[in-house]
Amino acid sequence: MKSFVTSVAIAAAAMTAPIAAEAGGHEELSYVLVSHAPDSDSWWNTIKNGIALAGDQMGVSVEYRNPPTGDIADMARIIEQASAAGPNGIITTLADYDVLKGPIMDAVASGVDVIIMNTGTADQAREVGALMYVGQPEYDAGFAAGLRAKGDGIGSFLCVNHSIQQPTLVERCQGFADGLGVDLGNSMLDSGADPAEIKNKVLAYLSANPGTEAILTLGPVSADPTILALEENGMAGDIYFGTFDLGAEIVKGIKSGVIEWGIDQQPFLQAYLPVVVLTNYHRYGVLPGNNVNSGPGFVTADGLTLVEQFAGEYR
Amino acid sequence: MSESTQATPAKDERVKEISGFRQALIRPELGGIVGAVAVFVFFLLFAFDSGMFNAQGVMNWSVVSAQFMIIAVGACLLMIAGEFDLSVGSMIGFTGMMIAIFSVTLGWPVWMAIIVTFAIALAIGALNGFIVIRTGLPSFIVTLAFLFILRGFTIYLPQTLERKTIIGGVKDVAEGDWLAAIFGGKILGGLFQWLGDAGIIGVFERGTRAGEPVVDGIPMLIVWAIILVIVGHIILTKTRFGNWIYAAGGDAEAARNSGVPVSRVKIMMFMFTAFCATVFATCQVMEFGSAGADRGLLKEFEAIIAVVIGGALLTGGYGSVIGAALGALIFGVVQQGLFFAGVESSLFRVFLGIILLGAVILNTYIRRMITGER
Q1: Which one, out of A179, A253, A295, B335, has a CA that is 20 to 30 A from the CA of B184?
Q2: Are residues A129 and B207, on separate chains, in Cβ contact within 8 Å?
Q3: Structural domains for chain A
């Protein structure tokens, strides 16, 4: 799979230059990316940058849309809206299969090509009639992280969940617990998305459960305040700390040894590749024959230079 | 009002004469009417060929507006009665989740799940109202508490019962259920099929639904919105109870002294708001087939915004259901229309704020013209 990702990326890069030059001669292609993220989720900035870059390089117009509060039912309306506006393609997540399958299938039936990115599974993407799935299978990623932590001798953990309504985040915690071979039980903390609240809840949990051996955070939203909490109670660098996703603070944490590893699902690829794939499909009728796993890639203190340079922008 | 307008009453020197034209023009809905016209003109100019006004596009913003309307009617009557309900959004999440838990997790028939959920919602609405009346606390605080309480249960219950925060599969168990169809069904399917066959509206190009019209009926959500608006408008303007609502919100003490059962009116309005939220939730669960713990976030403010755009006074005693419905329409059309017009979506809130501010300023002037206050 990895070599496939690389080859697609290389092919995309190689084709970029001539296409950008002759883009004026093509009919204008337009793509819409609909995410499930609320406005407050800074992680999606990478996605916005990813489609913007792909749009520039391929000479197509791209738009980013999301439900302001992260309400999936509102997201369904946005997908319906997007398909009514008749773009050439829609790139979207399957944050809730039941809710989104109807609008997505309608979009496909009305002639809009769809690629599923980020959230969802390859099976679900096929069932709604999407061309392909680009993303990181969440349970598997959590499971892989759990196995890794088990190998490092971990037996108990705290999972800081900043958006407990999202089933995919729960799956990450569940996968991690299963990978460790322990019951999730009350190891999952519903922290809310407010940084001060997250910090205080983590501090409270760790003082109530001093035997906790590891912390798993699910993104910059929960990781950044958790780093502060650990610095405050002196456990930074001592407790085993892994996180999903990257961000500027997380990269600093990995560098300074506070964080053992970060699981990078490489959101850039999830945004960039679908635009490239769709553009080439619509211009030349070529389509890769498989789904793309953009992650999990474990980022550790080795080889952080590029990550550090582009953290929060393209990484 | 109905009692006092028998035949043509004798000329009363206490009532100031107003010309018919002025009376027809100067009404609480005026701001909403002007706003709605302005919004449609704007989008006709800037987004006409974007698909906003084809069948799919019209259905899209109609459904979104209808959603706002359903909760705005409840919020409007409650606000006229002088109270707020900030638990509307959480109530939507909670009742949707209860329906899913009853029908999917516990395996009850769907009609029973819906009826029991409505009963629970009305009880919570009554409890909201009872606490407000009994303690004299601002409804702002009491319902804010319920915002957290209900949202907490909405996350806790499915997490405990099913270890997840979204319960799906409602569509399968609701198959063929008579009551589910009243919330999640569609009407006039034949008409739309005919329109599709006649080429008036688009049809699906490919897949298993090829040849079917892109819009295959009017969702019950829209029917509910229209019914609630009409019923709300009639109750408010044509019945004695409607006058009580105005009186309770205008000056509760004076109303009490003149024999209006203020407590009962307010509690009933809290229950009606809960009812509207449950209608919203039921339609949503039946349409999408799942209930999620994040449903309805911030919907209470969207309801209040729609009501305020429609000309109601935040302090109570003044407003109109038609105005609230127009406010909901403006809100829905602007929200979806900005997407059609290709506006950067992060600017959506900027436009919303500007429209809200403009509507409130306009409405204030209109109200001063009506009431003569300075």
Answers
A1: B335
A2: yes
A3: 2-136+265-295 (3.40.50.2300), 138-264 (3.40.50.2300)
